[in-house]
Amino acid sequence: MANPVESVNLNVDQAELQKFAELAHKWWDKNSEFKPLHEINPLRLGYIDEHASLAGKRVLDVGCGGGILSESMSERGAEVTGIDLGEKALKVAQLHQYESGAKVEYRLISVEDLAKEVPESFDVVTCMEMLEHVPDPAAIVRACAALVKPGGKVFFSTLNRNPKAYLFAVVGAEYVLNLLPRGTHEYEKFIKPSELASWARQAGLETVGTKGMGYNPLTKNYKLNDDVSVNYILQTVKSV
Ligand SMILES: C[S@@+](CC[C@H](N)C(=O)[O-])C[C@H]1O[C@@H](n2cnc3c(N)ncnc32)[C@H](O)[C@@H]1O
Predict the structure, then answer these.
(1) ipTM of the complex
(2) Which domains does the chain have, with CATH numbers?
């Protein structure tokens, strides 16, 4: 069977996968480059659970990495599948749940291939902090839409594209505060909420909510707010 990571037609940026592979052993180190993901996790988890009532739901986490969000959704009682094209991250995710006791099913498969295999089989799909790392984010949105059941929710999070986002997410986080390794983000790949909502609409997903995730460098805290100018979550629902 062909290794999906080596497939030439895949919607994947190998350099991006490589960046995450090099850091893979640090996924669960809360003081590492993954600290921001650990810190925003309770916020996004709370938002998803509030709007999709995770307990008992079949959930797909697209671009799950080392499983920070996947595990936390499983702990809320969801039956979670996590997919990624980073082999190392998936191994770390698998190993971590031996320790934590979480019960996530992890698979090395593209979201496009999974959509062909099991369309309309998840109650909830999450795709967080991943769209800004792929060549064709609209295709990922379409695949997420194909995977969710009619009436189900799809949550995306990514970075807005404007001078403030550049200042906070690239200059601030990577160069001033050293929250992230330099080169983590490419500004051109950032996505405006209107663009994401438009791709979602074309894929049959209606946007029903947006939230900003703000970082206060003085208190070193993240919080959910209504300011979507930097990092934001889009909540969508698939028409029945
Ligand atoms: C910033 S991490 C986010 C991880 C996780 N979603 C979270 O928010 O905690 C981005 C993840 O996207 C994955 N990724 C990048 N391109 C991908 C693709 N085409 N298909 C699946 N996963 C991909 C990377 O391997 C990495 O694990």
Answers:
(1) 0.99
(2) 8-238 (3.40.50.150)
